[in-house]
Amino acid sequence: MNRDDFRKLAETRLEDAKVLLDAGHFGAAYYFAGYAVECALKACVCKNTHEFDFPPKDTSKYYQHNLKKLAERAARSLIEVVSDRQHGVLQWLSKYW
After folding, report:
1. Is 36 helix (H, G, I), strand (E, B) or coil?
2. Do residues 17 and 69 make contact, with C-beta atoms less than 8 angstroms apart?
3. Which segments in the chain show pLDDT lower than 70?
4. Exposed site from 19, 27, 70, 92, fewest CB < 10 Å?
5. Rounded CA gap, 30 and 57, in Å?
6. Closest CA to 42 of 13, 74, 2
7. Cα 56 to Cα 42: distance, rounded to the nearest angstrom
């Protein structure tokens, strides 16, 4: 999937959530609203990392069973997105604290 796919999916899942809410299916509406947010976040990740396909085409480094390497990648990635001075999570949140 690519960035545009995730954006469209986010919008579609939000519409689904609204329909389910109106029909009284509150649990399903809640689930689809969360799914819409997940898709929107993935679109943001694609844009900000300049990896417009998700998962990336070179999946061998992502789909493996070496937990230490996976944990290291995850920690590095998380710290990078939290600490980025222009687009990081803390940079954004600091506007509201």
Report:
1. helix
2. no
3. 50-64
4. 27
5. 32
6. 2
7. 12
